[in-house]
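Revision sheet: structure tokens.
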Amino acid sequence: MAKVAYVKNYPGFLTLTLVCLTVLYAPLIIVTIYSFNSSPSIIIWEGLSLRWYKDVFFGIESAKFKAAAWNSLSIAVMASVTSTTIATAAAIGMVRGKAFRGRNASFVLISMPIMVPEIVTAVATLIFFSAIGFVLGYTSILVAHIVFCVPFAYLPIAARLRGIEPVYEDAASDLYASRFQLFRYVLFPMLLPGILAGLLLAFIVSLDDFIITNFVKGAGVETLPTAIFGAVKQGIKPNIMALSTILLFVSICFVTLSYLLGRTGSQAKHK
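Predicted:
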């Protein structure tokens, strides 16, 4: 038999990796550090302080930030719950349902928002809303986020569902369980880690979205990303760095939790 040659060393790979990581994360680290700067300047360091975090919650612009935060959180909660419900039903139909013509095409359609550039999705959504006379505002953001978040919730749910052996459902059916009982007492508990992972991923995608939101939000409605963008256009201030750091921390927490839930489900599957 011919021997397989394994490449153990990739010249230049480590350097390229370090360069990419630096370009990706150095700006985030700098913003985080300078959000604790006591100076009103964004380039002069004068010592550690929480004054700009206090300014976010109690400063002149705090009312605007609080309204934007409420819009972001409420939209993210409703969009993530709705999109996860749709994604769960779609995953069960695609993975556990009977084979049907067009299944591959259906999967492509579900995954389309991930593959298509977000700016294209934003423009298409705006054109569609304008064509049907849909008023732009809070509701238009919610509808757009629900549609956009479905594939992000679908992928971890479908992956978890594929890892569940059908024998459990077959055993429940042999014991005369109804379809609802089969889902409620057998499939749902085993699928729960994937559902929660999809829910958290959809939540953070909705919370952080800027491009689609900026196109379909209409006048007078702001979310945290659009509020930050609007404030930056008037000049970068330290309170914007503090607000960005808070949003970054929340995103990291939810992404980490989603990863841990998905990992827990994967480990439980192999036990």
